[in-house]
Design goal:
The structure is a single chain. The chain is an all-alpha fold and 103 residues long. It contains 2 helices and no strands.
């Protein structure tokens, strides 16, 4: 709340769970870190925070892919509906008789 986060939905919980996971994994990394000044731990933390930053772009990419798929599905359905109006029914003998080159 002090950081300016005013969200009241499920994202409030996911943000805090993500930060808790980063905190715990960084603490565990720190326990085995023997680098001077714990520089390896700070680098580890920077990488984890960068990973979290990429989540938003991944979500946006997935959202765009889903929207594109829905649009393509809608266009395919529209095309299928148009074709179904112009083609003879499936139970018609047009589909079973040999093609003669004329109608």
């Amino acid at each position: 709340y002090l950081a300016g986060d005013r969200s009241t939905d499920f994202s409030w919980y996911t943000k805090r769970a993500t930060l808790a996971a980063i905190y715990c994994s960084t603490e565990l990394f720190l326990l085995q870190d023997e680098s001077p000044g714990n520089t390896a731990t700070w680098e580890f933390l920077d990488r984890r925070m960068a990973d979290v930053g990429h989540i938003g772009s991944v979500q946006a990419t997935i959202r765009q892919a889903v929207c594109t798929a829905v649009e393509l599905g809608g266009m395919s359905l529209y095309t299928a509906q148009k074709l179904s109006r112009t083609l003879p029914p499936l139970n018609s003998d047009v589909w079973t008789r040999p093609f003669s080159g004329t109608r």
